[in-house]
Amino acid sequence: MPDFQPKIVAFVCNWCTYAGADLTGTSRMKYSPQVSIIRFPCTGRIDFMLLLKAFASGADGIIVSGCHPNDCHYSSGNFHARRRWIIFRGLLDFLGIDVRRVQFSWVSAAEGAKWAQLVNETSERIRELGPFAGYQRLRGLGVG
Amino acid sequence: MARIGVFICHCGENISATVDVKQVAAAAARIPGVAHSVEYKYMCSDPGQQLVKDAIREKGLTGVVVAACSPRMHEPTFRRACAETGLNPFLCEMANIREHCSWVHEKGDATTEKAIDIVRTLVAKVKKNKALQPIQVPVTKVALVIGGGIAGIQASLDIANAGHRVILVEREPSIGGHMSQLSETFPTLDCSQCILTPRMVEVAQHPNITLYSYAELESLDGFIGNFKARIRRKARSLDETLCTGCGLCTQKCPTRKIPGEFDAGLGLRPAIYVPFPQAVPNKPVIDREHCTYYRTGKCRLCEKICPTQAIRFDQLDEIVEVEVGAVVVATGFDIKHGDFFPEYGYGKYPDVIDGLQFERLASASGPTLGEIRRPSDGKVPETVVFVACAGSRDPAKGIEYCSKICCMYTAKHAMLYRHKVHGGKPYVFYMDIRAGGKMYEEFVRRAMEEDGVQYVRGRISRVFERDGKLVVKGADTLLGARPMEIEADLVVLATAAVAQPGAEELAQKLHVSYDAHRFFSEAHPKLRPVETNTAGIFLAGACQAPKDIPESVAQASGAAAKVAALFSRSELVREPLIAVVDRQPPPVYSSCVGCFLCQSACPYQAIEKEEIRGRDGQLIKTVARVNPGLCQGCGTCVAFCRTKSIDIQGFSHEQVHAEVLALLNRGERDA
Lengths: 144, 671
Fold this sequence. Notes:
Chain A is of the alpha/beta class and about 140 residues long. Helices cover about 40% and strands about 15% of the residues of chain A. Chain A has one domain: Rossmann fold, CATH 3.40.50.
């Protein structure tokens, strides 16, 4: 599917990854435009049901990224996010969503290049996986 | 009905070079709820901001989206502009189409489409934004300083000199801390007491400082600006208001052979004592553990001879309650003692001592009156081996970190020894010399070159006794790890600087976090080094990490500046981007079921229990309540809540859901 343009939603924290993505911009590094960012105060704020909501609304892939372990602006939010992600992975499988559609990562405010790389790699992988076809079924399950 | 204004910035050409801004403006105008959509070359300029302000007034806008740079850049600018027109500033959002779009993608339709997506997302969000009012918290302009070492003294004086009241709590009978025990200080070799004691006296005489010595913090409740502290004043067994500090009791006390804490166990003190002659306050305490009267019920000699009848054998601990607005924690450090180094014979051989004990030997007020005499037989040592990194930087001992002060004080010790014992032979075993600091490297070099201190790079493996000498076995790694043995008269270990024994307990009372080594954690290692994660509690000195005197003083002044800034206003104004718990009219009152999962998740102890009571006073339900003074707005509780009863203002469920749906343009695929 050569002209498939995936829709990827990035859930990022305000203090590290959002600022890291800002740095990608100020450094004028280029990356694939299929990713759009939604800002949260902290990855600890992210209710992972929102990820399912995004899939049910037509997202093909999702990035969740915050501060590196021990660097959380709020000291422990990213650890909560990591624990949720570990549990959530199993749920994805159960719902028939390919776990490769979600990329969990840490990008600090100094890692502009890492953000660009993360986005490009994720876009490439989602492009290979193709469009997420299960969204209507998810809505049937009452997720949407 | 929402009337949203969208303002698209060209940012010169930074945005318009890759994004078709006219197309974005046209697309934005078609979004339901958008009443106004324009583009302009520099939206942040004065005319640009005027454009926004005029539109708010003329079009009666209920929300504003500025599609320009990152909110981290100009959100405050545009929120201020909105506020000037009377529109609540929290009804303004930034759509980041520069850092996250125009600068990172090539010119083309995909880039313009992404910009439109971003604008649509933020329009959807701003429609759900609520007018928020800044939170105002009253501030009690009194500071509590815990710890009366040099850091606590400096912080107290700085805050007091800024015109605020200070309550200084010190655990020991006198303030002064470790610095008062030191002989001379690097890199200037000025006498520690000479520079410290005037400060101690200043504390005692300052009209704004209340000193509670021989006292400890019992508990701390409340939040920034509004703490309640309970302080336990331990029984000194004398009436401080009557005692004149004449010292007669300490001279006559018959129980005299107690190893003194101040002299690091090398000197002896009586059961009623002042720790050292320049103590502040200069009032004795009775050591009830050793006092003959408390042990046998007989003696009371001090009571009989006291000219002012100040002795109170029946005195009890007293609890003092104070209200304070800020807390500075300056509880300092300790050094590793005891059987930590069985291989070095520390604790086994009396002539293997630690750095603090050497300070007392070298101090003019110490047990040897400043003569270097070894503890076992009082002989002047001819050869002294100083061992740096005794425990520090040693993962096998569980202390991976560098204690930071030892390289310098070891150089100082070796130098002082040479100054006092001219023919003496000092050796220093070291791993690396870390002398980063003003005049520090020069100081170490002076020890080597002018005072002839023999530096040997290598660690020692053992210290053992042979024919009345201490044999130090080591290796010189710069000479091919050649094994060497030195017959020494005295061995001084620069034992690792560690956290105070009660650090963990205190951290729990204060609700501040601590690291694996029980040093208190700062809020940010680089940018917020004097704040803790609990608002209103600040750190100073070596309780945070090993530090030397200048660093401790600098941090104490930093903490004091933070306190003074907090106290500069009678009310603290905070951004209202915090969590709130659902409240409804009766009969529901709140959807919160009171599971308090949020409480366990909150890193700031900001969640309290609130009892909802009926008019008759009967308890209806217990629900969570967010303390607006403590909440930092991370939202961890929001993701935890099982009933979605807790939400965070500015990033609410409604707002982020609307963003996700708008970003994915929900409905397009359904068609």
